[in-house]
Amino acid sequence: MLNKLEVEESFLTQDVKREKLIFTAIFLLALGLRILFLFRIQVIAPDSPNYIYLTNDLIEKGFVNFFSHGFANIFTIYPIFICLMNFLVKDILLSAELVSLIFGTAVIFPLYFIARKLVGVRAGLVTAFFFATHLYLIRYSGEVLKDSTLFFFSVASLYFAFAGTWKRSYLLFFIAGVFSWITVFVRLYGIVLIFAIPFAYLVSAIKDKRSIKEILINLLIFLVPIPLVGYAIFVIFVGPEKEFVIGSFMRFVTGLSFTNNKVYADNLINNIPKGVGDEYVELITSHFFLVATVEFINVLATTFTGFLFFFFVVGIYLDRKNILKDGSRLFLLSFSLPFFLFDYGIIITHCFLSKRQLIPLIIILFPWSAVSFTLGFWWIKDKMSVSTKGLLRWLSRVVIPAIFIIWIVSISLYNMKPYRAKNVYQKESGKYIYEMVGEESVILAQKYDSIVVYYAEGNGVYYHSPLEVRKKLDRFNPDFVLWNTHLDPLPDVFGVLEEEGLIELDRTFLNNRDEYVYIYRVKK
């Protein structure tokens, strides 16, 4: 059935001009939806100020000094792209948004080329359509975050390695290696590529009975740029952040969370309504791996979105025989395996897995969602179009295209909603502080309130626990202290500090979820 899908393409997709026209339309749709979303963002993300500050550092200090400051600078070249864009538009925030937009949209090209080779033109176009309209991918293409850059270089690395395999091109393998280490420098998560590509190539090459000489040459060519990654890792392990990095690394490798399943249980039941959580703790603790696996599948399905995950599972089932026979399919599935293991390891050892962590994985799995969708969709359409009943033929020409139109309109309407409106109270808090004292105020806050610091144009000092507030109050002598009830109610320490005459409540800001920002002025 799948061979029929690949070989017997309809006139619509056999015609190269029509294929290019359809792909161009999908690309413009992807670009349009992302631009639309860009105008609906009300407030920047909590992590966004970091990249804006890093870009300012790069502009002020220069390239060499910028990369001499350790972990944060070495493993994010996102500010370099922002800086380059800033030469054109002379606005750092707009530059950052444009960089995310460009890279987030450009992913569609290597993804389509992979899917087209793998499952045919028709399913390749559907893969591109899924990418164009996926809400999470639209979102990260408008945010001032490095995720869209990571997505692009990850998929581009895969494409060059994938193309190098079936074209037997040493040059393409070298380019895959270069793009892989760029991905690592975008975000350390990209180091999975260093394992995923050689593993996928080995599996595929052995399946296709490639010579040992060819395999070794390709692997060596791919690994040529890797010493750069090794140097960067060496720098952070001996640099000022070495204690933090080594601690995090050892925690991940040794799986220290295995020793405290109760903590894991508490993390998993955070969203369970109060009063019913305790009964789950024992179950989760005694069936740790089962619950972790279920949670992993749940996050994966949610990130995919339910119906695309369903299509993926069905697509893998329908394609199971071809996967074992076809080296290209085996390459892509083998490539995804290290990402599965890495992400599963995160949920085991860190008790939490962000959806953004899974997006590189689901992008490369879209072709199998497209396979089952395409088979089912066009099977129904073909049956209806050859029916002797005029109504069914009419439905095949009207209803089927209408489904795509409704899909696009629904996504467009969703993107027209104000995004992150719940964080406007933080933006208002920052602007209020700026109006009172101007720029360069020192603000002691939780990391979540870096948004407030950004809009106040101040200097942030951050604490992780209320227990740190008094210590950092004495050490840094800030102008303001903030508390946000987004995570926890106002702790007693603020009342104690207020009674001691060290701080006084200046103002509160509230959002539509009854979350407050408490702004305390420090008495000098």
From TrEMBL:
UniProt KW Transmembrane helix keyword: yes
Q: What is its main location?
A: membrane
Output the InterPro entries linked to this UniProt entry: LipidA_mod_glycosyltrf_83, RgtA/B/C-like
Q: Which PANTHER family match?
A: MANNOSYLTRANSFERASE YKCB-RELATED (PTHR33908), MEMBRANE PROTEIN (PTHR33908:SF11)
Source superkingdom: Bacteria
Q: What would be one Pfam family of this protein?
A: PMT_2
Glycosyltransferase RgtA/B/C/D-like domain spans which residues?
A: 81-224
How is this protein positioned relative to the membrane? Multi-pass membrane protein
Tell whether Cell membrane is among the UniProt keywords. yes
* UniProt organism field: Candidatus Zymogenus saltonus
- Full protein name: Glycosyltransferase family 39 protein
Question: Which keywords has UniProt assigned to this entry?
Answer: Cell membrane, Glycosyltransferase, Membrane, Transferase, Transmembrane, Transmembrane helix
State the organism's lineage. Answer: Bacteria, Deltaproteobacteria, Candidatus Zymogenia, Candidatus Zymogeniales, Candidatus Zymogenaceae
This protein's GO CC annotations: plasma membrane
The Swiss-Prot or TrEMBL record annotates one GO molecular function as: pentosyltransferase activity
Q: Any stretches that span the bilayer, and where are they?
A: 21-43, 63-85, 92-113, 119-138, 150-166, 172-203, 215-238, 296-318, 330-352, 358-380, 392-414
Any one GO BP annotation for this protein: lipopolysaccharide biosynthetic process
- Subcellular localization, as worded in the UniProt entry: Cell membrane
